[in-house]
Amino acid sequence: xxxxxxxxxxxxxxxxxxxxxxxxxxxxxxxxxxxxxxxxxxxxxxxxxxxxxxxxxxxxxxxxxxxxxxxxxxxxxxxxxxxxxxxxxxxxxxxxxxxxxxxxxxxxxxxxxxxxxxxxxxxxxxxxxxxxxxxxxxxxxxxxxxxxxxxxxxxxxxxxxxxxxxxxxxxxxxxxxxxxxxxxxxxxxxxxxxxxxxxxxxxxxxxxxxxxxxxxxxxxxxxxxxxxxxxxxxxxxxxxxxxxxxxxxxxxxxxxxxxxxxxxxxxxxxxxxxxxxxxxxxxxxxxxxxxxxxxxxxxxxxxxxxxxxxxxxxxxxxxxxxxxxxxxxxxxxxxxxxxxxxxxxxxxxxxxxxxxxxxxxxxxxxxxxxxxxxxxxxxxxxxxxxxxxxxxxxxxxxxxxxxxxxxxxxxxxxxxxxxxxxxxxxxxxxxxxxxxxxxxxxxxxxxxxxxxxxxxxxxxxxxxxxxxxxxxxxxxxx
Length: 478
Fold this sequence. Notes:
Elements: H1 7-17, H2 22-26, H3 28-58, H4 61-78, H5 80-88, H6 91-111, H7 121-124, H8 127-135, H9 137-160, H10 173-269, H11 272-302, E1 310-313, H12 315-325, H13 327-332, E2 336-340, E3 348-351, H14 352-368, E4 374-384, E5 387-396, H15 430-440, E6 444-449, E7 455-462
Parallel strand pairs: 2-4
Antiparallel strand pairs: 1-3, 4-5, 5-7, 6-7
């Protein structure tokens, strides 16, 4: 575990990080180099500022003016490095720039203060180190070669020409050597310490990231176990629902049968009051049987035990059969129920009973949520490339659905109004079952609705079995 850094070190790093691009701070190595560039730049600026009194004390005349100008120029050019770091978002260019400034300033100082007798030689030795730390190993090799070339050039100019000036007093070399030697030691030590701080910070962040990853792995494993338990519970629930629904149907069918026989007896004996009560019993029992059938079908779908029996049929005929069967419900609610078929005869290979079940649920819902309005069923054909689809659109002028509930209504046992005082009865299974059945037949179902202005439920089914229809059904409008 990396040691926790002292407060002043964290404050220093936070100060150097201020204003750096976030991309530089995300990668540990890029962040370390960026911190070294910032630290080196400000160390060079500080060194140039402290050099001013030394130049003033050891030079005179044109030498003082030239040396001060070079010192101030190095200071100003060094500040371009942090700007490049923020502008480019990479430490390479800024690292080369600051290394070049240090190299140029050192070569100038060496060439104007006695060449190989100059006290500034020690500064030239840290140039490759700076380049490697700030811009990478290749940069260190490059600037090492440049420094060697510079040494050779200075050696040639010192021994074979008279072009190198002498601005410093040789009698002051001991003083300046001590000063710049101490400054170099402090600079290298400061940069090394900064590099260690950045490294420790990187290690601490890496350990924190590893701990978070380990925690995430534990959470993922826990979620996987919970998912397996949920799948097992759902399977058990589906099996239980299928068994119970099947067991409930047997006595309920007997109740319906005996109630219908009693209705016939009441008719034969002329007992209208008793007949009306018995008819209500038959109706309630049939309604309960329909709910049980929905539960049974939904559990079969979830357990993938519901088989499809495809046959050639005319979709418009199925829609008309369903609407004729639901006309009494439409009249009870004061609704007009109509069917509009395609211009040309349409044929498809579908499961007739499952298609009727879907249409009964959709049209029945439309009639239930519409009072003294209109429910229209449109049947048409659509082609998408080589595939052909049958489209059923059930449109009503009822209460509509809020936008936030469009997806929720297709979940099992979910109703838009689930309060105990809701106006409309139901278990919330119809639309969930429709969605499952439509998807089993390779189709899609969607809804377009505006609250208070009615709804349109659209079902798209492939006219041929999905295995022979290349593209999937397009998504229904929502």
